[in-house]
Design goal:
The complex is a heterodimer.
Chain A (H helix, E strand, L loop, with lengths): L2 H28 L6 H23 L10 H17 L4 H19 L1
Helix pairs in contact in A: 3-4
Chain B lengths: L22 H11 L3 H19 L4 H10 L3 H12 L4 H12 L2 H8 L10 H8 L4 H10 L5 H29 L5 H22 L3 H20 L4 H19 L2
The chains are: A mainly alpha, B mainly alpha.
Chain lengths: 110, 251
């Protein structure tokens, strides 16, 4: 998909099936107050959804991460969580610790 | 004080600069806020995406334009994968639709914080284009403590910068594809899921927040084994609802 016609096809897909979800969210969200019960429910649903997405990316990866054995991916994730808790709930330290183990593990395993 | 909500009062989390900031300063602070772990995670993920685009035989224009037009990596990845294997446009479009549903609840929960201080709807609709998972996570952290009239500008500051990061990084990833050791690419791709979980844990405040995260992480993969298209929706709705009900019962 390249060139001007490719761009228009991409734009059509985005405008017809992708962006409308954001617009719908805007229309619904405009009437909401963060103190509303519905807002809290949607926030809870979004949180679980994102957690499920992260789990999918870790357990069923595509691309370069697929070449990393499951045990190493899980070890890196839990190492990251441990570092997170040990550093006063600091997300970036946990993320970097886990990523470092992945890189190191891959270099060792080959 | 804020014209949007005269009852708003600063809290402990409200940054000092917001007391006297102009719209431009809020925008600039948002821009600066993008240069943190969230931004680096987006850069890492987009580099991986750019490399994937090249692996699939698509062009660098696809890598850059899809980042601007879709600004949602899962939708972009699916579209790239479908087109790369020569699937018909309608099949590709359908696959994108399913994955884009997640934008709905994200947009619903960010929109109440995107009110334009002059009531200009077009600015609000423009801002909602910049809602994606990472922007959602950062918006949840940064917008509520701010005075309402500064939130939209602040969001645009980091939201637009994030988008710039993804487009530039996708191009960079495309260009370096194949010449970077797999160990590094794998580590970069690992950033995304771990950032999602850890930053939500960092903001988790009530036990129901933790429950939502835990249930989503467990239900998602189980459903994925049965139906790879519905895992996010089922995990979100079931896990999120249980966590919400638990939170409500224990308030």
């Amino acid at each position: 998909m390249s060139g001007i016609s490719g761009f228009f096809v991409m734009l059509a897909i985005a405008v017809l099936v992708h962006e409308p979800w954001r617009w719908a969210g805007y229309i619904l969200g405009r009437r909401l107050n963060p103190d509303d019960e519905i807002f809290k429910w949607v926030k809870s649903v979004s949180t679980s959804l994102v957690a499920a997405l992260a789990a999918r990316l870790l357990l069923f990866p595509s691309g370069a991460l697929a070449g990393i054995p499951l045990w190493l991916r899980l070890a890196a994730f839990f190492l990251g969580v441990a570092v997170f808790f040990r550093t006063g709930n600091t997300a970036w330290k946990g993320v970097c610790a886990g990523a470092a183990l992945i890189a190191a593990g891959k270099l060792v395993l080959g | 004080m804020s014209n949007l909500d005269p009852t708003w009062k600063p809290t402990d989390a409200t940054p000092a600069w917001s007391a006297t900031a102009t719209q431009t300063e809020a925008l600039y602070r948002g821009f600066m806020a993008a240069f943190g772990i969230a931004g680096y995670v987006l850069i890492a993920g987009s580099i991986g995406f750019g490399a994937l685009v090249r692996d699939l035989g698509l062009g660098i224009d696809f890598a850059i334009l899809s980042s601007l037009v879709f600004y949602a990596l899962p939708a972009q990845v699916i579209l790239a994968a479908e087109l790369g294997r020569g699937a018909p446009i309608l099949t590709a479009a359908f696959a994108v639709t399913l994955t884009s549903v997640r934008l709905l609840p994200m947009a619903v929960t960010v929109t109440p914080f995107l009110a334009d201080y002059k009531g200009r709807r077009w600015r609000e609709v423009m801002a909602v284009h910049f809602v994606a998972v990472t922007a959602w996570i950062e918006a949840n952290r940064r917008l509520a403590p701010l005075p309402p009239h500064l939130r939209l500008s602040h969001f645009m500051g980091f939201g637009a910068t994030f988008m710039g990061f993804t487009a530039a990084s996708a191009a960079a990833g495309f260009m370096i594809a194949g010449s970077v050791p797999v160990a590094l690419t794998a580590a970069l791709l690992f950033f995304t899921p771990s950032y999602f979980v850890m930053s939500m844990m960092q903001s988790a405040y009530l036990r129901s927040d933790w429950l939502a995260i835990g249930l989503g992480a467990v239900i998602g993969p189980l459903v994925y084994l049965v139906s790879p298209d519905l895992d996010l929706l089922v995990a979100g709705l079931v896990g999120g609802t249980i966590a919400y009900v638990y939170g409500r019962a224990n308030r």
